Sequence to fold (240 residues):
Amino acid sequence: MLDVVKTLTVSEAVAEKLVNQISKGKLVWGQKLPSQRKLAKMLNVGTSSLREGLQMLHATGFIEIKRGQGTYITKNSSIPLSKNITLSLNIDSDVRNLMEARKILEVDIAILAAKKAKPRDIKRMTTYLENYENFLGKDNLKASEYDLKFHLALVESVDNPLLYKISLAIRTSLEEFIGSIEHTKKGLDNHWKVLEAVKAREITKTRDAMRTLLASTERTYLKTCNKIDKEKKHGQNFIG
Fold:
């Protein structure tokens, strides 16, 4: 059975039209848009409908409004995708689901890194792990920050913008949770083993090292999740 065709509002049509112009290259990333009055005339719509359409695009990251300067197509083309993936992940932000996604994604990313990472990528990842080590046991949030930077540098090294955007969205959704978990020497060692295997271009060792890292991370995550669930349940029982 066919779905009913949805009729777009004028503001939705405005947003769709501008997104189509971006996808076709008629509007380019970072480009300044005409004034709202002029743009409304060009699109043959009212200024209020145009304004609503622009607000939709702003919410989804396609445009940015600079006070006193005007409205611009977002300079970084990854922002809209990242925003929308992040929004979807926030709706279903179960840590168990996110970890399952990480296991599927990050093992293959590590394998690609072993094939494609350049010396500058290795150097950057090394620096991040050294900083991770420096903050270990002293500042958990900082250690967590460099943990995040290491994983993003790993996916950057494969030179695939789509994989980077998806990975960034998943890591962003986990960022607060990761920051609340104590980072350990064992966890750091697992990261070093991944980097050493990538540096040596050892595909099998890289795969196994990343699997070990993620398995260990998952155990820590689930332990923390179970503790949080018990605390919530206890709190509900206490309130009841």
